[in-house]
């Protein structure tokens, strides 16, 4: 039994790493898309595509026991799908991607604070905060090491709010995982409410897709990646990691998002790799290891 639990925990860590690897590339993918379509359009079509993939994978209907359980899914869809990604995407239109990357990477701190309040089993150790500070220094060096620092109050505030929303999402998904439902079914239910809230936001944020834009290879290829890979697959794998590893320990992997983003920026966009970036990557990884230390 203990061996099985250990294997599940190891698989949870692997799932978190794979998820972060894919999520770290979404900043680049989203930046490409924002040149053609709006933030809300990206979200709507991305998660509708992800929802359809999950429906094909598991067409069974999820039946919750009561309205209290259903409210957990409503909250998760609102916080982790609609608000988080909408705030993040809009923030990218007002401030630098590096700014958003740094601020979003501190979401584990908000997760830890919320978990200490709402999840009694999630205990915080001194090593967590030491690792957080080391990773934060590394992330700042990684993002601002070039000296090209530009702050936009609105964009940065939106990114902070996105981080808080992800903290709430992490807590809610941990509670949902304790209900015992199948992971794919719970993820699809979360997507359902996320999409419904996006529909509500349409009249206020302007949803006027130009269909000819979607014929462009950059648009449909990146939407396929975001919908199938970064949404359908990653949310299932992330929710599994939260279930077996815990909300706080899983959220620590978010420290690596800027590391992945910079790495792919060098490989795909052919941006220069500086010694500041190397130091930042090393510190971010060291901070992760310290935070995960028992």
UniProtKB/TrEMBL annotation:
Its main location: membrane. Residues 11-143, 154-290 form the EamA domain. Keywords: Cell membrane, Membrane, Transmembrane, Transmembrane helix. It is found in: Cell membrane. It is a multi-pass membrane protein. This is DMT family transporter. Pfam families: EamA. Signal peptide: none annotated. It comes from Vagococcus allomyrinae. Belongs to the EamA transporter family. The chain crosses the membrane at residues 12-34, 40-58, 70-87, 99-119, 126-145, 151-169, 190-207, 219-240, 252-269, 275-291.
């Amino acid at each position: 039994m203990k061996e099985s639990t250990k294997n599940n925990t190891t698989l949870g860590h692997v799932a978190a790493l794979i998820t972060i690897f894919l999520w770290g590339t979404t900043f680049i993918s989203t930046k490409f898309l924002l040149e053609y379509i709006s933030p809300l359009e990206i979200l709507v079509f991305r998660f509708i595509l992800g929802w359809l993939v999950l429906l094909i994978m598991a067409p069974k209907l999820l039946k919750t026991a009561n309205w209290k359980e259903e409210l957990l899914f409503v909250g998760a869809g609102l916080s982790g799908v609609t608000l988080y990604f909408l705030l993040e995407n809009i923030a990218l239109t007002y401030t630098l991607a590096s700014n958003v990357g740094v601020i979003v990477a501190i979401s584990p701190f908000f997760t830890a604070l919320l978990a200490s309040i709402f999840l009694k089993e999630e205990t915080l150790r001194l090593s967590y905060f030491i690792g957080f500070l080391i990773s934060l220094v590394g992330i700042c060096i990684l993002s601002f090491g070039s000296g090209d620092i530009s702050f936009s109050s609105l964009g940065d505030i939106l990114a902070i709010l996105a981080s808080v929303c992800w903290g709430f999402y992490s807590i809610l998904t941990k509670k949902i995982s304790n209900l015992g439902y199948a992971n794919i079914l719970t993820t699809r239910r979360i997507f359902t409410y996320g999409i419904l809230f996006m529909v509500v936001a349409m009249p206020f944020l302007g949803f006027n897709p130009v269909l000819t834009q979607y014929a462009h290879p950059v648009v449909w290829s990146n939407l396929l990646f975001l919908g199938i890979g970064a949404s359908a697959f990653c949310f299932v794998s992330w929710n599994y990691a939260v279930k077996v590893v815990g909300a706080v320990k899983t959220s620590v992997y978010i420290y690596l998002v800027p590391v992945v983003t910079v790495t792919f920026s060098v490989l795909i966009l052919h941006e220069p790799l500086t010694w500041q970036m190397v130091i930042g990557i090393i510190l971010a990884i060291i901070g992760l290891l310290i935070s995960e230390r028992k």
